[in-house]
Model the fold of this input.
Amino acid sequence: MSTNCSNCPLRKLDAFTDMSGPEIAFMEKFKTGELEAQPGTEIMAQGQSSTHLFTCLTGMGLRYKTLEDGRRQVIGFVLPGDFIGLQAGVMSEMEHSVEASTSMRLCTFNRSDLWTLFSSHPTRAYDLTRIAALEEIFLGEALAVVGQLDALAKVSWALHRFYTRLDSVNMVRDGHARLPYRQQDLADALGLSLVHTNKTLARLREDQIATWSDEKLTIHDMTRLTRLAHAESDGYAKRPLI
Amino acid sequence: MSTNCSNCPLRKLDAFTDMSGPEIAFMEKFKTGELEAQPGTEIMAQGQSSTHLFTCLTGMGLRYKTLEDGRRQVIGFVLPGDFIGLQAGVMSEMEHSVEASTSMRLCTFNRSDLWTLFSSHPTRAYDLTRIAALEEIFLGEALAVVGQLDALAKVSWALHRFYTRLDSVNMVRDGHARLPYRQQDLADALGLSLVHTNKTLARLREDQIATWSDEKLTIHDMTRLTRLAHAESDGYAKRPLI
DNA sequence: CGATTACTTGAGGCCTGTCAATGATGGTGG
DNA sequence: CCACCATCATTGACAGGCCTCAAGTAATCG
Done:
């Protein structure tokens, strides 16, 4: 069973900007199908070009760069509504990989159609550029966190951001949210060792601030978490959906 | 004396993609003037919107985020050919500041004209998106460096990247390049303390790999520097100029 | 010539990485 | 059904890379 854009469940969320009728009609043509990705699958590979672009419909994944010595830097986490493959679309190849952490359902687009988007639907092109700018903003914030904060603040920031982003796509129920990543993923995102990440999570748990276990995230004290996280106040405005 | 786009000295460099006649004609209209910024001037401020966008014509600057506790993360360094204000253009406000390190000459554009760029010149819109994607690629690489590498590799990476980028805009003469930043700027970019940055630079100098003093960068052994830097081999392809 | 800024160098300590071992869980094959 | 293996989370011990503090030099400026 495939979803069409006119009744896309994501588009109705408050987190995303509105789309006009003609825009929706165009997206119906732009979208070529859907893809189911199993956990552990590599959706896009670093150093390769791709004929397809995606939007995450359901499920979660992560973006990461692999260094030649085997180390790994997690660049970000893919949640529903996220666009995948902008780099492959406008550059020759991807500079990071994207992997499915859970089973994921993805809307698929043809890279070759991207040019018609720019030439015939400037509002959609503008939205795509805004998405790129949002990525840039996030990476700048992540760089500041990894570069300047200590371990407790790093982990707090990550959990705070997970919770906020999951909440924006309606994936928080009764204060709980599914967080299907491994501690190693978080460690690789924050530039910490697995061991130290584990101990920092244990401390947040003991201090009754936040608990993340069995793939489930629970915030016990959002006030203290926000303070520890040095979280920027702005409650992330609406963003475009492709 | 003001430069017009048709004889823009940057456009002729190998580093930048070609521009068609109609594109150049449009840029002439799009460009509203030039601005001279003195060293230390804040060109764009974090948290503020701006009516103007810029392209760096000459001189150098830096982008940085300020944390509430006063710490600072340098997000990147602005060299000739770099576009400034993409975030201000397509989002409500900037999430980082831009400051002039030397005297800078900037091409100025009106933010309100940006929409006509998207609606009437899709090739230019595409280029703008590519620039955003390039920024994203750079920030991803910076995140991996700051998150995963040790101090020696971080500093080596930075010097290697400085040299490569300066070379691409023809600012290297006889193996020397002007690098008008302070050690504190580099430290804040790499997430290192000033003291440790200084000692790491001293070590690279003693080992006859690279010397950076008196605002002048000299590479003595590019082979070893490249190895230390874990530098990605791809010799940065052509990029668009706005 | 005092004040400011930037670079340099040394000493000491802590935050975080590495190493190592254990437990828990789940999948697999005999 | 159980031994076996792989993955992930957890905990302790220890070392080291990097930070902080501090002091000194040099250059620039009003």
